Amino acid sequence: MSGNRITRRTFLKRAAVTSAAAVAFPYIIPSSALGADGAVAPSNRIVMGAIGVGGQGTGNMRAFLGSRGVQMVAACDVDKAHVARAKGIVDKRYDNKDCATYGDFRQLLARDDIDAVCIGTPDHWHGLVTLAAAESGKDIYCEKPLVNTIAEGRVVCDAIERYGRVLQTGSHERSRPNARYACELVRNGRIGKLQSMTVNLPPNSWQLPGPNPPMAVPEGFNYDMWLGPTPYETYTKNRCHFWFRYILDYSGGEVTDRGAHVIDIGQLGNNTDHTGPVEIKGQGEFPRDGLYDTAQLFEFAFTYADGMKMLVTSNQPRGVKFQGTDGWVFVHIHGGNLTAEPASLLQEVIGPNEVNLGRSPGHHADFLNAVRTRGTTMAPPEVGHRSATMCHLANIAMVTGKTLQWDPVAERITNDDVAQRMTSRPMRAPWKMA
After folding, report:
1. What is this structure's pTM?
2. pLDDT digit string (tens) for 220-230?
């Protein structure tokens, strides 16, 4: 970090020193430095670092980099090519060479001049990095799914509360106005009594690459750090980066990838953000051999305590349909539009005394607003955890072939010890979720 940059945390300390000097040596301060003319005063800037700057991580970094009142000062990744690219993007934005780079997230988190971080690592790192960020006093934007196991989610939620941090889960579809309006229609009875929800997700439609023989680890890639808490496996190119999402050690396939978005909207419409289903059953079609082991085709169902059901299928179009006694509304994920029957539902006006879910200025902007006001984000930790929990329960049900009974208060599978053990995973030393 350059010596002439004034961060939010150092501004007041420096002000005490410079004020004395100003008496003896008056000078002119540009109005932009004081926050006039639309600029943001240094004392109000949010200083950020990016941890995990692959595809989605770089996308999030760019979003924050272009946000008013944010100063991006550091990037971290286990792949030197990724972090070099990120540094180039940041330095170009500020026309300098000041962006610091790291290969270990702990070094970035040790900086006391950083207020917040965006986490775009593979899923198996989300819980560990989020916990460490909270412990270091940082606010956190973490990609979905919030965590890679159910047990990690509870640890993260407790840590965010304990350390008084702000967290936004990267379930950005929740911030879209079409989703929020549709959920208002449902919760205000415009479709009558809600009878069922159907979530459509894409199948694992990518042509999974193979064969995948052992390979030499590329120069500049810290593969052991990439594996982190997961079991050691020999390196092969298509285990890492984009393709990790189709390996259960690191992610949960489309169920946790896109499912964390669309199931999340179902939770919002059903007013069950802080709880979950009591029964989960389903079936999936899994690869029989090779590197990848997440379900490619699937159908599973969640049943809530009041009898409400959510059916999730690997069908198109991607979105969620709320079926009521007097009509239905479908939230399309691609295109951001709604369809409904009767179509007149989409002309309904939600009154001031009805359930109003608010509107987001954008998922990243909503996070920044919450950091400034110490408010609540659109996708706070409990919401991210509960949506991720449903995705993980679905995968456990499909892998075991069992109908699971779930206690959403105790957060335990009550009818199968083997399945319950799958709600957490041992971590490879020295990593642990304390």
Report:
1. 0.90
2. 999 999 999 99
